[in-house]
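Justification of resources, computational component.

The compute hours requested in this renewal are based largely on the per-chain cost of generating structure records like the one below. Each record pairs the submitted sequence with a full structure-token output. That output is archived, and it is also reused by downstream analysis tasks.
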Amino acid sequence: MESSISQPCQGFYPLRLLRSWLASQPVQTPQAAHRIAKLIPAQCPFKRDLVLFGHKIGHIPPLCKLNPLYEELVALRFKALCYLVDECGEDIGTLT
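The structure output for this chain reads:
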């Protein structure tokens, strides 16, 4: 008899649908690729050090990992950047 702890969590059903939809989205135009690369940040924007009078008093960890769609969004951004490099021949140094 298997324990439910050893099985990976399947997630909430609508989230699984959204995950599979995001994973299956193709990047087909340069405009869409630029929009995706601009909307999805390269780094987690929430990671911060709290500083008061020059002394670090606390730290806010990256909260992106708590987002249930984090991996799919990062993969979509990666697909968009690959499209811009491979299909359009663009330099993505300014987008990262």
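The beta strands are 48-52, 55-60. The chain has one domain: 13-86.
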